[in-house]
Amino acid sequence: MKTSHYLITIIGIICFFAPCSTFGEDSPTYAIVGCTIVPVKGMPIEKGTIIIRNGLIEALGPEENIPIPADAEIIESNGLYAYPGLIDAQTSTMLDSPKAENQSSSRPSPASKTEKKPSWQHADFMAFDHLKLKKSIIESFRKEGITTVCIAPDKNIFAGQSVILNLSGERAKPMVIKNPFALHINFVTARGEYPSSLMGTMALLRQSFLDTEHYCLHRGKYNQAPSGLKRPVYDPFLETLSPYVSQKSPVVFNCANLEDIKRALRLKAEFKLNAYVSGASEAWRVSGSLKKAGAPLLVSLRLKPPLTSLFVNQGEDLKKKAEEEIYPANAAKLHEEGIEFALVSSGLSKPSDMMKNMQKAITAGLPRETALKSMTVNPAIALGIDAITGSLEPGKIANIVLAKGVLFEEETKIQRVFVDGISYEIKQAPKDAQPPAINIAGKWEGLVKSPMGEITVAIVFQQEGNQITGTITSEIGKWEVTGGALSGKNLSFTIAANIMGNDMEMEFYGTAEQDSIEGSISTSFGNAELQATRAPGRN
Amino acid sequence: MLSVRVLNAQNLLIKNGTLLTVTMGTVIKGDILILDGVIKKIGKNIEAPEKVKVIDATGKYVMPGIIDSHTHIGLSGTNEMGATITSEVKMEDVLNAEDTSIHTAVSGGVTMVHTMHGSGNPIGGENVVLKTKWGKASEEMVVKEAYRTLKFALGENPKQANSFNPRGAPRYPQSRMGVNAIIRREFLKAKNYMAQWDRYNKANRSNKGAKNLIPPRKDLRLEPLVDMLKGKMYARCHSYRADETLEFIKLSKELGFKILCFEHAVEAYKIAKEIARENIGISVFLDNWAYKVEAAEGIAYNAGFCTKQGVLVSLNSDSPERIRRLFNDAAKSMKYGGLTEEEALKLITINPAIQLGVDKIAGSLEEGKHGDIAIFKEHPLSAYTLCEMTIIEGEIYFDRNQYLKEREEKAREKKDKEKNKEKKGETQ
User: Pick the residue with more confidence: A523 or B354?
Assistant: First the structure.
């Protein structure tokens, strides 16, 4: 038998007996002791205890009041702060891009039998059906303390429907808190077809909502008493829109500038929609209308002024001021006006960017307590999940962040995150991390030697500063390289392997030179040696 | 930064200027008192009430704010080219208060504009009338008193639009007869639609017990056309050649809607009597023609000649550049067309006001009208003039001397800063 086949068989047998990966069913009971509890709803508790059982918060309070159950694993948390897991109520990461439909190739003739679906009719794009749950991306959210996300499609006028996930484990179905959450709409145009202008988009949105109202009316009457009535013409698009127009399910309007916000509020009033305003980088400029309309507000931490803004085309000085002072103060100004909102990462590709910008927003005047509220209770209410999350209360989901320091202070490091009661230790870059000595980005070929045999691998690395990500491909499979760090010449990373359906993490420690890498991989069945050199050809 | 500086006065007393009222003669050394944005009194030696800002207009010429009855400023987008008939779109949905062209307009004494859909479609969208209140929110600019108008276009622009469509067959119509045919077709659809609704409403009223009645589907494209058939909305039609203009008048009578005004109307002089008889206005350039084939036979005397034949003529800019100098264009009508001073000024004030249906609130200096005023250094029809101040409803939206002062100050500050930097560099 070939060496690699032998290897696969052995690993398979071992994996069969290896502990199952996180599934939530048998998660252990924990007692977090000695921390300062910040429940957000209610006063902070110094020296508190939180009991987690069955993925839920069973009890919490001052340590004198909370007995520790016999079966609890104790997590010593002296000097740490416990917060509710943060909620990012709008992100478009972790989504497969919608397949570009053939709207550009051929124009349907009026007599064509097959009706081509216009590109804007994208309302049935369900985020849940197009999730791309890469482990490294999920980890990058948890690393920032974000335990719950609402993943929203963001392309086309009717972008699609979002899903709310709790980021525990790796499989989508157990993660789902709510599917769908909302219908998402963008004030964009359809390239090369109607509507090709913003005014056309507004007319289209109005006509679509009118048609949905009419459809629901007709269908409702027909279902009740069809006799004598012509039957309504079945329309899948209007079927999709129906709950959002007749049952007032949430409709989230992505608003790039202040006029978009006005447009959204106008549509909200005209059709009595349960409309949310998101993005809203200029929300402070229409605070009066926002207060009046009472539409839930999801403020993006992208902080960039829209291209239409006057601040951006009156010279470099003003543009700089807009990008560094004026627009980062959006949230602070809304807070001063007494407007509540949730802070979201929409428009940003990485949650770490969201937290960097959070610092900018706080510097610009957003109080830290408001920032915390805007990532816990407020998004929970906006997403309609405040009965089960958004604060630390008995009975709620055990989504907990343990931080060394007050959250959102610059030096604060998140140590551990609980999601659905499953504990995730957050590996931070070591304090004595040196800047990387080399750039190892690119393609590598290597050989893994283990007591059970040899196997060739192809590795692709990406490097950003200290951080290393990438993929490692072999006969056994293609796996992700996560949590990688290059400090000087010391290289470490985790391989998120999945062998025969079982997840396994393997740690690599070694050294990297300009053209060669060597080190050892530790697995649950022993150590293996890796030697790799750069792949020939263009890298 | 183009400042958003607006004195929240709304109460002003303009003193001692030459008042060109346009409709009621000229007042030498006249005063205008504006209270709460409305002209309260025009006369001489008006006493300034308490707390009212006084503007000294000695040696200056005071005229009503200029009205530009055909522009595309203040919008995010001009044409909806995805379809040939787009009566469902509204300019009011895509207002852009940050368009610097609004500021340009205000610097040329323009206080009101009719900002329109483009001429790419035989039937475009619903236009909107705005006051050029630079610095205010977009919804505060809308003039609700104006007529509702729908943009129509004939001739080369609609028939050539999308003719080089890389994605397939060129768009119908490709000829003038096609343009008329598609307009007719859409209005006939609208008539059917109106009849449908009439039937439903009748049945609904009589058959009180009918639970099975479903109303027809509301069609946003046909609704404006129905409004036109009912006389609630009017056509503003872009046309160049005499023949297409006459054909459109015939079409409007055949289908039953009213044309308020022809835009550009480069050959209007050929059919001035016919246009005057139909009580339709024209909105034209003074000396801009031959930029395309259908504009080949334009003449500079168009505006003047048509005025003398009894047509209601207004001058427009259709450009964020020309909008700054409509008063120069008006002056040209005295040389080309032999119009009097007052007739020339009317082309950019009361005439467009009447065309837009806002003559009760704007277009002349009269007590009771809005305090929309432009103050000029010389007579507005003089080649040497400059607009110095523009006021809308008693608030100052443009003050040339103030800007010049601020520029000087900024330049001085910059110089001082650089001097300080040099000094610091030297001592180090």
Answer: B354
Kindly list the domain boundaries of chain A, sorted by start residue: 3-18+432-534, 25-85+390-420, 88-97+119-389
B167:A318 CB<8 A: no
Chain B residue with CA closest to A193: the answer is B82
Chain A residue with minimal CA distance to B126?
A199
Q: Which CATH architecture has domain B1-65+364-428?
A: Roll (2.30)
> Which residues from B are below 8 Å from A120, CB to CB?
none
Q: Distance between CA A43 and CA B251 in Å, rounded? A: 75
Residue A482 has pLDDT above 90, yes or no: no
- Predicted pLDDT of residue B378: 97
Contact B93 A199 (CB under 8 A): yes
List chain B domain ranges: 1-65+364-428, 66-362
Locate A165 and state its tokens: 């996930």
- The pLDDT score that the predictor gives to residue A112 is 46
Q: For residue B164, what pLDDT band results from cuts at 50, 70 and 90?
A: low
- Beta strand spans in A319-404 (E): 342-344, 400-404
Q: Rounded to an integer, what is the distance from CA A533 to the centroid of its chain?
A: 35
Superfamily of domain A25-85+390-420: Urease, subunit C, domain 1 (2.30.40.10)
CATH number of A88-97+119-389: 3.20.20.140
A226 touches chain B (CB under 8 A): no
Q: How large a percentage of chain B has pLDDT more than 70?
A: 95
Instruction: Give this complex's ipTM.
Output: 0.93
pLDDT per position as a tens digit, B61-80: 999 999 999 999 999 999 99
Chain A neighbors of B80, CB-CB under 8 A: 194-197, 199-200, 203
**Three-class DSSP category at B194:** helix
CATH 3.20.20.140 fits B66-362, yes or no: yes
Distance from CA of A228 to the nearest CA of B (A): 7
**A116 lies within 8 A of chain B by CB:** no
Give the model's pLDDT for residue A15: 47
* B204 Cβ under 8 Å from any chain A Cβ: no
Of A162, A534, A215, nearest to A379 (Cα)? Answer: A162
Mutate to test the interface with A, among B89, B95, B140, B200 (most CBs of A within 10 A): B89
- Asked if A228's CB is within 8 angstroms of B80's CB, the reply is no
- Provide CB contacts within 8 A for A288, sequence distance 6+: none
Cα(B68)–Cα(B70) distance, integer angstroms:
6
Q: In what order do the strands lie in the sheet with B110-115?
A: B66-71, B110-115, B128-131
pTM: 0.85
- Residue A433 pLDDT more than 90? no
| B144/A contact by beta carbon, under 8 A | no
Specify the CATH architecture of the domain A3-18+432-534.
Answer: Beta Barrel (2.40)
Selection from A455, A463, A466, A472 nearest residue A507 by Cα: A472
Confidence of residue B167 (pLDDT cuts 50, 70, 90): low
Asked if B310 has any chain A CB less than 8 Å from its own CB, the reply is no
pLDDT surpasses 70 at A17: no
- Statement: residue B377 has pLDDT above 90: yes
Quick check: B167 and A207 CB within 8 A?
A: no
Average pLDDT, chain B: 93
Query: Whose CA is closest to A260, among A213, A307, A294, A302?
Result: A307
CB contact under 8 A, A196 and B81: yes
Q: Which residues in A lie closer than 8 A to residue B77 (C-beta atoms)? A: 197-199
Q: Is B182 on the interface with A (CB under 8 A)?
A: no
Mean pLDDT of the residues in chain A = 88
